[in-house]
Design goal:
With about 300 residues, this protein is α/β, with parallel strands linked by helices. It has helices at about 10-45, 75-90, 90-100, 130-145, 155-165, 190-200, 225-235, 250-265, 265-270, 295-305, and strands at about 55-70, 105-115, 120-130, 170-180, 205-210. Helices cover about 40% and strands about 15% of the residues. A 5-stranded mixed β-sheet has the order 3-2-1-4-5, sandwiched between helices. The longest helix has about 35 residues, at about 10-45. The N and C termini lie far apart (about 100 Å).
Length: about 300
């Protein structure tokens, strides 16, 4: 129109605004992608429920499986040890015991250990509430690589387990550490001291001492490893030891121990899942002094290596 002054076309200003919108849209898309990826990861690892806004997920047991990978474990023992847990997770007895709890589900994690601080988690915290989740956990363990390492630190394994309980997103009626190994503690702090710290926090520790080889095979082997586990490693309500003295017992004994751990803390109920040929040892309440020195492993190490 006559007398009307048009504004000059500001290409620079418009391009700046368009660029800002594009950048903002890119940031939103990236945030959404990260959130989606995180949700997928948490779902796969079984932790999605553990981060629910209504607080920790209630489970019947928070169970930690801690397995020895020191050099005293030969490859066949390692394979049998892990196979025991894999078969246990898929067994009908395990699935039946799983449903005896109020919540009908447990939270489980599996790590391997050797020297103090030498640990690695093969199965992160995972909810098992039925056959599908149990088989998924078993398959993950089956696919994990094997390795061996120096020294034996049961105390380090207990301390690692205690750290895994912290802020794991679960609230279990019981917290249990399941330790399997073929030797005495010879690295890190005293094993009974680490055990006592765990017991004071209400944690139960069970043991699976592997006594397959003759006691003279290694310089740190002892004849009564089962008593060592009873006196120095395990503790808490319903705690027990299942010694393995023959390779043929690995899978059956491991399955029995895992089933008993999730069934109940009461021996009368645990034993309902125990075959007659699987021995279960429990520390007598009247026993005041250990039958085995809890520092025997450290002593044997010093005698052999001088440090």
């Amino acid at each position: 129109m006559p007398g009307t002054q048009r504004r000059p076309f500001n290409l620079t200003g418009r391009w700046k605004r368009v660029s800002q919108r594009i950048a903002r849209a890119g940031r939103l898309a990236a945030t959404a992608a990260i959130a989606t990826t995180s949700a997928i990861f948490l779902s796969i690892s079984g932790l999605a429920g553990a981060n629910a806004k209504d607080g920790p997920v209630k489970v019947d047991v928070e169970l930690i499986l801690a397995v020895d990978i020191s050099f005293s474990m030969d490859p066949e023992e390692q394979r049998l040890q892990r196979a025991g847990y894999i078969e246990a997770l898929k067994s009908p007895d395990f699935l039946r015991a799983l449903k005896t709890g109020i919540n009908g589900k447990i939270a489980i994690t599996y790590f391997q250990w050797a020297s103090n601080f030498d640990t690695d988690v093969l199965l992160p915290w995972t909810i098992i509430d039925g056959a599908a989740s149990a088989e998924a956990a078993a398959n993950k363990l089956a696919a994990a690589p094997y390795r061996r390492a120096r020294r034996t630190s049961i105390s380090g394994a207990i301390e690692k387990a205690m750290s895994l309980f912290e802020k794991n997103g679960f609230s279990g009626a019981r917290r249990v550490i399941d330790i399997s190994g073929d030797g005495t503690n010879n690295d890190g702090g005293p094993v009974n001291a680490a055990r006592d710290v765990a017991l004071r926090q209400g944690v139960v520790i069970n043991g699976l001492p592997l006594m397959v080889r003759p006691s003279t095979w290694g310089y740190s082997d002892i004849t009564n490893l089962d008593e060592y586990y009873e006196d120095c490693v395990i503790g808490g309500p319903g705690s027990f030891v299942i010694p393995i003295r023959d390779r043929s017992q690995f899978i059956r004994a491991t399955r029995t121990k895992l089933v008993m751990e999730i069934a109940s803390p009461l021996p009368s109920i645990q034993d309902q899942f125990r075959p007659d040929d699987v021995p279960v040892l429990r520390l007598p309440a009247s026993l005041k002094r250990p039958r085995v020195s809890c520092l025997i492993g450290e002593q044997l190490w010093r005698e052999r290596w001088g440090n």
